[in-house]
Design a protein that fits this description.
By secondary structure, the protein is mainly α. The chain is built from five helices and no strands.
């Protein structure tokens, strides 16, 4: 049960970073940062949730990580397709 909650949190954390990533040039510094900044948060979640670093947790959390990234990308592309205002920040676009 804890693994499911942590994987949902990892998914949600990665949505804004995926949104940011798609607006950056591939392999630029910001693109690199948008992928790697969430990693310490995932490690902290692993430690404080006591799921540890067991081998069976890796596929689930890696899937959640990339699913969040791709969902953020999907939101960006959807907003672009509908000609809605787009910036590099999902919070500004959705709530601003």
């Amino acid at each position: 049960m804890i693994l499911l909650v942590v994987s949902i949190i990892v998914f949600v954390i990665n949505i804004p970073f995926g949104y940011w990533r798609v607006s950056e040039k591939n392999y630029s510094l910001n693109w690199f940062l948008s992928i790697h900044i969430p990693i310490p948060f995932v490690v902290i979640l692993r430690i404080y949730s006591n799921i540890g670093f067991a081998l069976y947790t890796y596929p689930i959390l890696v899937f959640s990580f990339f699913a969040g990234q791709f969902f953020g990308k999907y939101i960006y592309k959807f907003r672009a397709k509908k000609s809605l205002p787009i910036s590099k920040c999902i919070c500004v676009d959705l709530f601003g």
